[in-house]
UniProtKB/TrEMBL annotation, chains A, B, C, D:
The gene is aroC. This is Chorismate synthase. NADP(+) binds at residues 48, 54. It comes from Rhizobium soli. Reduced FMN (FMNH(2)). PROSITE patterns: CHORISMATE_SYNTHASE_1, CHORISMATE_SYNTHASE_2, CHORISMATE_SYNTHASE_3.
Length: 365, 365, 365, 365
C-alpha cells in the first residue's frame, strides 16, 4: 500500500518525485489564526536545500515554497493567517538531469529502494530515485515550519553528533555553533575533524553514516497517550520514516539497557516556584508515553548513502548479474541534511499530539 | 488522547487494567478461514505469563485466554475457524493484591507513568499502574498469536541478547536454546552469567535494563510502503509502544552510522535457482520501507523497571516532597518478559502490511 | 475488509455474534472524569432489548451490561468515574436457539445478508445471522449511553414517525408520549392505529418498514468540519450503518428538492439576549457541515425485515433453486427497536465531533 | 476539526479555495499500472465546469487539470501510467471576481456556511465562500476520473431525476439522452418542462432544489463490509459530503418504509449460465453492507442554493440585524452540476472498497 500522510489531526500529505515538475504537501488540520510569513518558512527550507557546501549533493535547487491555499493575507501584505482549511505548498524541481540516471533504469543499486519498489509495484520511476528520493523531505520541512507555529512556546532544534566513528564531545555542546558550520555541529572542536574526514570520503566517492540528535523544549506536559499513540512511539515512527534512518532512541535509549533502576529513575523535587523539578532526564522527557514537561530528546542514525563511485555487485530487472556504480551527484554524508528534517518530523509529531489534546478550533481555544 | 488500537487493516484494540476483573483485546480485520486452536494461542501466552522463574515478577496469573467471538468451531470440536468478524479475547485477572499499592496512590514513583498520567488525565488508577501496567501486553501476545496465522510461512522469533553490560556472544547463537532457559537467551554460555548477575540484582531489590532482538523469517518481499507506512517505521512504532522500551533499531541500526557506503551496501547476485540472493543483510530485510524477502531483524532496548526497593526522591499529588520505594512484586529485569511481546508486535505489524498488500477477503485471496 | 470501529476520537469497536457466548464493545477515547452509574446505562439498554411487547421479537434477553475496564468506583460504591482508558462493556447472550436456524445454514434468505456474506467471506455464521444480526446494536446502545455523558447539556431523543403508510400527525407531537407506548410514537392518536395495523402484520407472519426521527438538542455550535468530516455526513454514515436502514435525511431532506431558495433559507435575527436566533430550521441544525446551535434533526428509513413466514424464491450455497420461509422469532417492524439505536448513533457521532473540537484531556478542558 | 481527506485506501485529499490561485487534490493509494490520458480526465472535468448553459453559474473556468506527480509517460507521449505514488492534480482558478463579495465579508448569507465557519474558526475566507465553495468539487471530479480506472469493468453514471416538483417519467429513461441536454436529464419529454421552469427561476433571481440518481454497474460482488464500513454507509457518507446535499437513499430508500417484507425481498433464482439472478433490486445492489453484483443505485437531494437576489433577514459578525441579497454569479439549480460530482463520489467510494478487498500492489494483483 502506498501511504503518504503523516499525522492524525495535524496531517501532512506529501507528493512528488525527484524528477517531476514539482513536489509539495498538503497540511490539513492546521488550526485557524496562526500567523507566519513566507520568509519564515523559506528560512527552514534553506537549511535543508542542497548545494550549500561541498559536503552535500551539488544538485542546485532553490526550493522556493509557494502557498496555494489555506491562508488569508493580513493587511501588511506579508503576514499570512491560517484559516483552518488545508494549506497546499508547492516546490518546483528546477535542476533535474535525467541523463545521469539512464544506466540504472533497469539495474538495482545495492542498498537503494530500487529492487524493493520493482518487487512491490512492478513499475518504478528510476529518475533520481523517484518517490524514494530525499527530495520528498523538502515538503516535510515546509510542513514542519507550520507545525512549529502550532505549539506556542515550543522550540525544536537538532544537531549532528556523530559522523562515522567521530563523536562530538558533549561538554563542548553549544547550540549557537550549530548554524555556523556546514555540519550543524554543536562542538566547534569537532568541525575541523569532520571537515578533513569528509573531504577524504568525498574525494574517494565514498559515503559515511551519521547520528542526529533532536531536542524539543517548551513542550507542554501531558501530550501523548497510552497505549498505541505514545509520544515516543510516534516520534520514533516519524524519525524512522526519514530516508536512510535505521535506528531511533529516546532519552538514554540503548544505554538504558546498562542502567540500574536506581540510576535510571529521574528523581523529583518540588521547586521553589511550586513547580515539580526533575533532577535528571534519562527518560528524554516522556514517561508512559506522555510528555512530562522536560525537554524531549531523541537521536537517530542515518546509514551511508548507497550512491557511491565504487562498483558493487548487483542484479538487473532481467535477472542478470551486473556491477553498479552511481555516477550522479550525491551526498558523502546524507546525515548532514537530515538535521532539519529530523526537526521537522519532531515538530509535526508534537503539533499533532498538541491538537489531540487541545482540539483544533479557533474560537474554543 | 487515549488511543488503544494498533494497526490499520489488522487492527488490535486492547483494553483493561492491571487490577480490574479482566483485560483483553478485539482483533478486527482478521481474514476469514484461518484455522487455530485455543491451545496454540495459550502456548504463546504461557511464554509471557508471570511467575515462571525467580527472575520475573511473582504475581501468579494463569492468563487463560477465552475467545468470545469471530470464530466457528470446526467439526473436530477443537479447531476454530475465523469468520472475518472481530475476534474478542478475554483474560481474567486473578491475582490482584491492591493493598500493595495503597501507599503510592498519591505519590509518584520516579520513572513510572504516575506523574504523567495525573498531569494528563487528572485521575489515575494507581492500582498496579492501571493501564500503564505491563499486564496490558498479555492482550498483545494473544493478538500476535492470531497474526502469526495471517502470513503463511512466516516465523517470528525473539531472544534476549543483553542484560546490563553482559552481551551474548553472537557466534554462540542457537535458536534451539532460547526456550531452554529462563531468559530466552540464545547463547548457552551466557545463561549462568546472567543467572548470577540477576540473582544479585534481585536480592538487592534493584533492577536492570536489557536488549531484545526479534527476527521475522519467511516474510514475503514487497510488504511495506513509502512514505509514511514504511515497514521499518511501523515495526519501530510497534516495538516502541511496548512498556519501558526506549530505543529501536533495524538491521545494523546505530552501527550503520559508522559504516561506509561500500560496507553497508547489501550486494546481490542471482542464485542458481534463478532467485536473487543478498550477500549480506545490513538493511535488516527492508529497503526503502519495503521488505526484500530477507529476514527482518530488529532490536529494542528496555529500561530497568523503576519499581525498586531503594528509596528515591519524588513528590506527591499534593506537591509535597516524598521518598518512594516500591514494595509490590516486580521484575528485576522486565526485558525477559518483553521477548514474547516483541515477537507479538512484529507479527502484528507484518500481518497488517500483508493484508494491505493482499486485501482481506477470503474468496478473493 | 471487516471494519468494526465507529468514530475517530470517540471510537466504538463492537464485537460479537448473535449466537456466541457474548457480545460487547470497547469505547476508546472517552475523556476522563465522566461520572455515571451502571443503572443509567442499563436504562438505555432496556429501551432496546427484545421481548418487551408483542410487536417485537420474542427472543428473551436481559441485556445486562458489565463494565470490565476504564472506570474507577467512586466512594459511594455506585458512581463510576471514567479514567480516560478504554471502557470495555460485555453483554451475555442468554436466549439462543440455534435449532431454529438449521434449515437456513446453506439457503440464502432473500433480503438478508446471507448471500453477500458468503460471497465475501466464503464462510458464514448462519446462526441468527451471526455478525449481521441486530443483536450487534445492543453494544451501540451501551456506547451511546457513554456518549451522552461526553457532551454537557446535550439531549438526544428519537421517535417513530411512520409505519408503512401510516404517518404521525406532527401537530400532535408530544415527547412525553414516546415512552408511554410500545412504538416510541410521539402522537397518541396514532398509537391505536399502529396497534391494529401491526397486529395484522404480525399474525400474517409478514413485516413492514418504518421511519425514525432523531433530534439532538443542546449541541454546541461549531461542531463538524469541512470537507469530509461534515457533521451531517457523519450522522448519515452512523445512521446508515444500522441494520436495514436504506435512507437518511437531515433537516428538510428530500423535501428540500422542492423548495425555492427563498423558502429554504433559515433567516436570522439577533435575539433580545444578544444571541443569534434562527427563524426556521430547514437545515436541520447544520450549515456547511457545521452545527449552528439549532436542534439537529435527522430521519432514517428502515426496510421491513426479510424474515417472514411466506415462502420466497431463493438459491442455496450449492446453486440450487430453493424456497425459503423463516421460522425463527422475528420483528414484524424492526423500525421500533431502531429508535434507541438511532439515538445512540447520533449521540456517538456528536460526541466524536465534540472531542475533535475540544480535545480529549481532563486537565485541559 | 478540519478534515479534507476522503477514503481509506484510495485516499483523496482536496485543497484550495474559490478565490486562491488554484485548487487541487492528491490521490494517494492509487494502484500502479493504471493507464489513462489527460484528455480522459479532462472530459469528466468538462461535464462539471461552470458556464456551459444559462442554467448554471456564469463563472468562466476552463478547469484544466495538470498532473504533477505519480505517473510516468508511456512511449506514445500521451498515455500516463500510474506508479503507485501519490497523484497530485492542480486546477488554476482563472475567473475570480472578488469585488462581487465585498458586501458579504461580514454579513452572514442565510443558508450558507458563513455563520457556521465564523463560529467554528473565528476567521473566514468570505471570497466566493472560500473552502465551502462548490469549486472544491472540481478536485473530486478529477479524483473520480482516476477512481473509474481502478475497478475494471465498472461504469458509474448519474442523471437528474427531479427539479422542484417536476419529476421525470422513469418509463422514458434513456441514458443516451443524459448528455444531450443541459440538465443531464434522462427523460427527453421533461427537458422542455425544466427549461421553461428554470428560466422563470433564473429570471426571478431565485433558486430551486433537485434530486440526482447515481447508478454503478459492473461492481464486483463482495465489496463493502460489516459493520462500520458498509458500502451503502460509505456511499451515503460520500454523497452527503457534497455541498448542499440534504438526503441520501439506497435502492428503494424512504419508499422501503411503506413496503411489506414480501414486496421488499429481492427473490433469487439460478440463471441458465449458472449464475445467481436477482428478480428485483429493491436493495439497490447492497445487502448487509456488501455488494451483490446487482447495479448499485443511490439518490441524493440537493437543496436550492441560498445565493438569491431576494433580500433575506440575517445578522452580521458584529451582531447587527441586516438584510442580505447575493449579487454574484450563481446557479439557479446547483443540482445540475451535482450530477458529475455524485458520479465521482460513487466511483471513489467503490474504488476504495475494491482496494480494501483486493489489496493495492501491482505485482500481486
Amino acid at each position: 500500500m502506498s501511504y503518504n500522510t503523516f499525522g492524525h489531526l495535524f496531517r501532512v500529505t506529501t507528493w512528488g518525485e525527484s524528477h517531476g515538475p514539482a513536489l509539495g504537501c498538503v497540511v490539513d488540520g492546521c488550526p485557524p489564526g496562526l500567523r507566519f510569513t513566507l520568509a519564515e518558512i523559506q528560512a527552514w527550507m534553506d537549511k535543508r536545500k542542497p548545494g550549500q557546501s561541498r559536503f552535500v549533493t551539488q544538485r542546485r535547487e532553490d526550493d522556493i515554497v509557494k502557498i496555494l491555499s489555506g491562508v488569508m493575507m493580513d493587511a501588511d501584505g506579508e503576514t499570512m493567517i491560517s484559516t483552518g482549511t488545508p494549506i497546499s505548498m508547492l516546490i518546483e524541481n528546477t535542476d533535474q538531469r535525467s541523463k545521469d540516471y539512464g544506466e540504472i533504469a533497469r539495474s538495482y543499486r545495492p542498498g537503494h529502494a530500487d529492487f524493493a519498489y520493482d518487487l512491490k509495484y512492478g513499475i518504478r520511476d528510476y529518475r533520481g530515485g523517484g518517490r524514494s528520493s530525499a527530495r520528498e523531505t523538502a515538503a516535510r520541512v515546509a510542513a514542519g515550519a507550520i507545525a512549529r507555529k502550532v505549539v506556542p512556546g515550543m522550540t525544536v532544534r537538532a544537531a549532528l553528533v556523530q559522523i562515522g566513528k567521530h563523536k562530538i564531545n558533549r561538554d563542548n555542546w553549544d547550540w549557537g555553533q550549530v548554524n555556523e558550520n556546514p555540519f550543524f555541529c554543536p562542538d566547534p572542536e569537532m568541525v575541523p575533524v569532520w571537515e578533513t574526514y569528509l573531504d577524504g570520503i568525498r574525494k574517494a566517492g565514498s559515503s559515511i553514516g551519521a547520528i542526529v540528535e533532536v531536542v524539543a523544549e517548551g513542550v507542554p506536559a501531558g501530550l501523548g497517550a497510552p497505549i498505541y499513540a505514545k509520544l515516543d512511539q510516534e516520534i520514533a515512527s516519524g524519525l524512522m520514516s526519514i530516508n536512510a534512518v535505521k535506528a531511533v532512541e529516546i532519552g538514554d535509549g540503548f544505554a538504558a539497557a546498562e542502567l540500574s533502576g536506581e540510576d535510571n529513575a529521574d528523581q523529583m523535587r518540588m521547586g521553589n516556584d511550586g513547580q515539580p523539578i526533575f533532577l535528571s532526564n534519562h527518560s528524554g522527557g516522556i514517561l508512559g508515553g506522555i510528555s512530562t514537561g522536560q525537554p524531549i530528546v531523541a537521536r537517530f542514525a542515518i546509514k551511508p548513502t548507497s550512491s557511491i563511485l565504487s562498483e558493487r555487485q548487483s542484479i538487473d530487472a532481467d535477472g542478470n548479474n551486473v556491477d553498479v556504480r552511481t555516477k550522479g551527484r550525491h551526498d558523502p554524508c546524507v546525515g548532514i541534511r537530515a538535521v532539519p528534517i529530523g526537526e521537522a518530523m519532531m515538530a509535526c509529531t508534537i503539533a499533532d499530539h498538541f491538537l489531540r489534546d487541545r482540539g483544533q478550533t479557533g474560537k474554543t481555544r
